[in-house]
Amino acid sequence: MATTSKKFRADEINNIVTNVHETLPVTGSLVSDSSNVKEYSHKRYISVYDSAPALASSNQLMDISYCSKTSLNSDSTVKASREAMYKQFAQVLTGFDTDGSLKGLHVSSGGSTQELTDFFVIALPRYLVKDKINNDTSKLQFTYSGSVMQSSGSSNMNSPAGEFYELETDKAGVTDNSGLLFVEAGVMVVSKDALVGSIPITSGGQDIDYWANSGSYDDVYTLFRENFDNLSFQNTVEVNSTIYTCQVSFGDFNYSNNPTFTDASGSIPAPSDKKTYITGIGLHGPAGELLATAKLSQPKEKTNAKNYLFNVRLDY
Question: How many alpha carbons lie under 13 Å from residue 274 in its C-beta half-sphere?
Fold first, then answer.
């Protein structure tokens, strides 16, 4: 092994950040299949899996909740629960104003802002979102009853949940933005008003607007699921890297303390008589402690006539 070491100069250590993306589709057939749904006694949200939730191999795809600031539902229990969910998401996603009141969720509307008071929330699990959803508008597409929604405009940062964008729809008759996408939290807020008319008439002769105000929990969740076409997005994994530039000059590392490197008398012959080989690089801390090692794919011969430049990359 080498008997000497070298210290890095400041310009030989560089930090970079690389974003790695993965495209994930969630098909409507999975969401609309009632056997993939897990319901809860509180009825405030449902969980959708890629197979029966009871199976050990099933993976959670999303949670779906319906929220209302001032619910018109005649059932007092349903009304209270939907209002409670509105307050919960408003606190988490937008926070409080200076007077202690909830800011609420707002979107652009004809040059002004419009508050979202009745909306669905699609919350994606962290194992799908990773660090965040890719904010490129072409990378997220939510299709509902043939209408397409995707993120639009520039990012906003005034949220305790991090970066978010507005959602726009190509649905005829809807000119205002239809929801919000919180890319770091992995949460989509979809306005109920953007869905009214998109859903086919049900067997009861009413659409989602009616069931949101007059139906049970299950009615509105079932209608939403059955008209869910697909959701496609790219997640983002942020890979931080440090690149160490290791310079091996002509006079560096031409000796070894390997016993075979000395002659019978214990003397080290001239460098021209012996060769050393670089097989690995060790990165040491200030106290000389070994922190990391890098192995070469094959040994590199080192003599007084050769110098090398190695880049060692640590990802974390």
Answer: 18
55-92: per-residue pLDDT in tens? 999 999 999 999 988 887 777 888 888 899 999 999 99
CA triplet 125, 44, 176: central angle to 5 degrees?
75
**Residue 48 pLDDT > 90:** yes
Among 209, 39, 29, which Cα is nearest to 119's?
A: 209
User: What's the 3-state SS for 136-156?
Assistant: CHHHCEEEECCEEEEEEEEEE
Residues of the chain by 3-state class (helix, strand, coil), percent to 5: 20, 40, 40
Quote the Cα angle for 107-196-212, to 5°. Answer: 95
CA distance 148 to 75: 32
Domain segments of the chain as ranges? 23-234, 249-315
The CA–CA distances, whole Å, from 232 to 36, 146, 159, 225, 285 equal 19, 14, 24, 16, 45
pTM of the model: 0.78
pLDDT digits (tens, 9 = 90+) for 241-266: 999 999 888 878 877 767 777 777 76
Buried b (16+ CB within 10 A) or exposed e, 234-257: bbbeeeeeeebebebeeebbbbbe
What Å distances lie between residue 186 and 146, 181, 216, 243, CA to CA?
23, 8, 27, 31
H or E segment to which residue 76 belongs: helix 76-93
- Residue 46: pLDDT over 90: yes
Q: Tokens representing 279?
A: 């097989």
